[in-house]
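User: Predict the complex with magnesium ion.
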Amino acid sequence: MLDVVILAAGQGTRMKSTLPKVLHLLGGKPLVSYSIDAATALSGKPPVLVVGHGGDQVREQVGSAARFVDQAEQLGTGHAVMQTRSLLAGKSDHVLVTYADMPLLQSKTLQTLYKAQQSHAGPINMLTAVTDSPRGFGRIVRGEDETVTSIVEESHATPEQLAIKEVNVGIYCFDATWLWDHLDAIPLNKKGEYYLTDLVEMAVAEGKTVNALCMEHLEEAIGINTRVHLAEAEAMLRKRINEALMNSGVTLLDPATTYIHPGVVVGQDTVIYPNTHLYGETTVGENCTVGPNTMIESCTIGSHCTIIASVLEYAVVEDHVEIGPFGHLRKGAYLEQGVHMGNFGEVKNSRLRQGAKMGHFSYIGDADIGEETNIGAGTITANYDGVHKHKTITGKRVFIGSDTMLVAPVELGDDARTAAGSVVTHDVPPGTLVVGVPARPRPQQPESQKRKG
Ligand code: UD1
Ligand code: MG
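Assistant: Here is the predicted structure with magnesium ion placed in the model:
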């Protein structure tokens, strides 16, 4: 049994923000959610989050994804773990400690650390990394036989220790019994803090070995302290996501300007052009062309679609649909197979059924547009009377002339037609042509006036 403790009580002063550091967004999700997800994947239960500064906001945002412990005063990493005693002591065999501001750390790395602790007799396994710029990190001090003897914080290090390139990542897996037996013995240091790192020296003094797992890529363990770090992490996350997509068969013309959030699914042989943003719970099917200059948030897109320079939010698009340039799908838009939506169209809370076409400059809101209906240039559904929203319904194969105003609530039957410039305020029966303002059925022309030949 394993419990994971995530330290998140620090103030994050260098973010220069009123928002707690761990709630800043990376890839569209709060920083803290990455460590929570990685921890939950490993232990199968919500981790314990030690919160302090901005604790209420963090609690509210995270909800039941974590268990919370308060650290009212931030007296160091050792002190932070001490706060979890009443919740965790005696509950599990191992305790893994990690940070809320290391979002790129992968669950499989934590898994490796946990496995090492399970097969190791000593009380501590920890992650280290070798770097040419060890600034800020605690240094790993090894004895003549190369075993770890202590961790020295930069501010306490001698010049020789400062030259050490192996650093403490800050993530440890402990034998739980040993941890709870020794935690309170961490001395208060000159800075008035209890350092978790002091446990290493304490274990060594007892003749126990401390195992250090040296990570290949330090970038996985970068901590976010400033907005510069946040942007660096965003770039690394983007690279990770984009490479995984390309390796699964998606073409990205310019990965550096393709912004895809974690969890987005893109099908094989889809081609993504520059400056495309795919956010939220978005799925794009196979053989689509998306972008350039496109933003899609929480949409389901079918296969063989073409979407150019458009914004799509909370919408569903079936196969073989064309959108753009300059289309806007808003919440509740549903475009069935083969729909064509040309330039400057907006669709909100409406269904466009199979094969419907709206080529140019239209607003369709709160509508149900029948199969093969043609929406002429400049058609507008006047769906809002200032108080309520009303519905527009058309049947199949309706032909809506250019610049028609459909004043809802209104219904047009199958094969109905409106003349250019009509203002439709009353329902139109099937097969009927309406003209004018307000639109009326066109009177039958007497035979004598019909053009001959
Ligand atoms: C710590 C390690 C250092 C390591 C580095 C890696 C100690 C003494 N030092 O140093 O060896 O190289 O991390 O990043 O542990 N926190 C609390 N409560 C506290 C203090 C900190 O929750 O009272 C949290 C912070 O929010 C942060 C994490 O613990 O997420 C690390 O704290 P920080 O002050 O950044 O430690 P470092 O000085 O970087
Ligand atoms: Mg730090």
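The mean pLDDT is 96.
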